[in-house]
Amino acid sequence: QVQLVESGGGLVQPGGSLRLSCAASGTTVSTNIVGWYRQAPGKQREWVAQVRPSGSTDYAGPVKDRFTISRDDAKNTVYLHMNSLKPEDTAVYYCNQRDTWGKGTLVTVSS
Residue 72 half-sphere exposure, CB side, CA atoms within 13 Å? Predict the structure, then answer.
């Protein structure tokens, strides 16, 4: 059974940092694109970043230069390093591979 489990969310002040983790089982994070998405209250889910099997990465405009996606093949885990967080980054963050989604982890940016 393929599973993706997110962790690392929490409450952080504006300008702060968090690292989210997406641990995979039943699949290998290096064999297909793994993406991070987020859904803010009252809004549609939106794509944030992705890492390709080659290791190349892509980012949505609002997070480019603030967020970094990385992959640890030995741990079969993908990370999202988030810096310079803003209140508008508040959302539930999900990771995805093909048709599998995790349950999400809540990030709240507030003073």
Answer: 10
